[in-house]
């Protein structure tokens, strides 16, 4: 279905009518015309750039003591966002913290999506006993509190970035599995799948090449929400001190700053605001994608 | 009469369905916890500082964790059949008593947070849907999106800064004033002031979830035929919205609330630690850190049980909200 169905293109200037514009460019226009998506994407791009260039912007080790401890933001021009109780530059630590949050978020979502898509695709496509068994497994995971599961998995291993991402991914796949299963169940009865079957395509080829691309839009929306949730979970974990002590993370900064909550609350407020901004950007992207990919959701 | 039959059939269906799930949870959790490196004996030996290999082995024998895994599982199951959750070596108490001592506090916190989230979320969502696209909708959307993006424990910390540190209105630690020996109304109000901030911290994310859901569901309902009929009958718009739209919109909202319950329990771990709330969440964290599997198993089991029970209640609620649900058996 074309995106044009709901939003007719307003022809500006001497531009050709909507039909003549190549499909891909029309898609791009739909993305660029959605203010929610654009706002989210802009913040997210900025955060990714910060994460990539952290080493260039702040060449000094952000774990080193560089100034007087507990300087308030604005008190010293050298440290615009102040210093923590160990005299470390808060701004530099915030920028480095972007890395851990985004890395864990993306990796965890990727793991969760991979497991969830495989389970959901098989359950939805095969149906019957396989479906019933897999859905039982999904139910098992969904009745167990996700966060407690993550805590248990992290304590099985050492808390490092890969294990934290793995734990969050392992605990978050059931939602995707349900979503993908529902998509596959409705798509497997469609005419084009029937055609593929009658051509003698193997089930795997039908799943991967025929159904999967059509099942993707809601999964893409879910992916952005999953990254957002993974970032929130990671923040909670590192707040509880389940984190790699050598990696700067926003949740950990909140945990450290909590001891000075009464005197220097900015140490808690700033990393929390950073988390909120990263999660907000992903939620904006998700909302925007939802509007673009499923135009019927808004009357 | 019909309601009674429906309740019976729902309960029967759930019992048949839930029993294998519970059994699966027990076995999976049990085997899963065996993967954790170290055990209670290790942790206690480390804390004691000077423990010989013999002492540790003796401790293991005393806790029954030197036996083969399957024997331990069989022991656990046979105790569980007698509603005995086992004994915690770390806390030196029976797991059942440990959990029961903490459960009321956690339930109080969770029920308060869930009620707060549902009431606020549904009100805000309905207001947004009623003024769709106009400024109240837009303004509230921004606020809701912010709450949707902020970590709950951080909202709690910021509330502590404002209400405890700056204004001095609310306490920020524990669930009652220690040593105050209050009774009657003073006790209730003391408990209540201790409850507000943790409940707010736990609820903040879910307020946003339910507001977004209610808005979407309310807008979806407006397009249904029965809404046109209700309008054509000349019913008061407010009555249409409350009795016809909201009633139907509540079905998806409560479904998600049931699915979120596990997350709420997980969130309680952080919030209880943050506010020094003596509940199950903190017990869980202590059990993980102390490698106390018996307590951890008990907590996991009980939380799954709570989730299943509440979902049965939600099923029944749905049957009442929308008589079409469960009518085709």
From TrEMBL, chain A:
Keywords: Cell membrane, Membrane, Peptide transport, Protein transport, Transmembrane, Transmembrane helix, Transport. SUPFAM superfamilies: MetI-like (SSF161098). Residues 98-286 form the ABC transmembrane type-1 domain. The keyword Transport applies. InterPro entries: BP-dependent_transpt_permease, MetI-like, MetI-like_sf, OppC_N. It comes from the Bacteria. The chain crosses the membrane at residues 31-58, 102-125, 220-242, 263-285. GO terms for cellular component: plasma membrane. GO terms for biological process: peptide transport; protein transport; transmembrane transport. Pfam families: BPD_transp_1, OppC_N. It is a multi-pass membrane protein. It is found in: Cell membrane. PANTHER family: D,D-DIPEPTIDE TRANSPORT SYSTEM PERMEASE PROTEIN DDPC-RELATED, OLIGOPEPTIDE TRANSPORT SYSTEM PERMEASE PROTEIN APPC. Belongs to the binding-protein-dependent transport system permease family. This is Peptide/nickel transport system permease protein. It comes from Enhydrobacter aerosaccus. The lineage of its organism: Bacteria, Pseudomonadati, Pseudomonadota, Alphaproteobacteria, Hyphomicrobiales.
Automatic annotation (TrEMBL), chain B:
Residues 103-318 form the ABC transmembrane type-1 domain. The chain crosses the membrane at residues 15-36, 107-131, 143-165, 192-213, 249-275, 295-314. Pfam families: BPD_transp_1, BPD_transp_1_N. Belongs to the binding-protein-dependent transport system permease family. One of its GO terms (biological process) is transmembrane transport. It comes from Enhydrobacter aerosaccus. It is found in: Cell membrane. It is a multi-pass membrane protein. GO terms for cellular component: plasma membrane. Keywords: Cell membrane, Membrane, Transmembrane, Transmembrane helix, Transport. This is Peptide/nickel transport system permease protein. InterPro entries: BPD_transp_1_N (IPR045621), MetI-like (IPR000515), MetI-like_sf (IPR035906).
